[in-house]
Design a protein that fits this description.
alpha+beta
Length: 115
């Protein structure tokens, strides 16, 4: 929130060395430090960060969030995350607003540069 950027490559190396993995909450990076957030900014891959959480209320400016990852991780969340069982999908107007916000971030790169 204050402009600090974690040394994510070192953290990934540490996690791999210790046979663990990183779950990244990228709330303050998506659309800010790059269009796709920390993974793109640090030139990492989805294999480096197997679970990614992106709240949509920061740079996207709407509401909600998404979690992405491998099929196995996502299936685990579906089966084990109690809070998931009681959630509902986003309404169509909110989904359209999210899509429009993402298009603006992609097309108007000057916003990132100014920030």
């Amino acid at each position: 929130m204050e402009g600090n950027i974690a040394d994510l490559k070192s953290l990934v190396g540490f996690a791999q060395k210790n046979q663990t993995f990183i779950i990244l909450d990228d709330a303050h990076a998506l659309g800010v430090i790059s269009i796709r957030g920390s993974i793109e900014f640090h030139e990492l891959t989805n294999d480096d960060i197997p679970v990614l959480i992106n709240p949509l209320g920061k740079a996207i400016g709407i509401m909600g969030a998404f979690v992405s990852g491998s099929r196995d991780y996502m299936e685990y969340l579906v089966q084990k995350a109690r809070s998931y069982k009681y959630t509902t999908s986003l309404s169509p107007p909110i989904a359209c607003a999210i899509a429009k916000s993402i298009r603006i971030i992609q097309q108007e790169k000057w916003r990132q540069e100014k920030l």
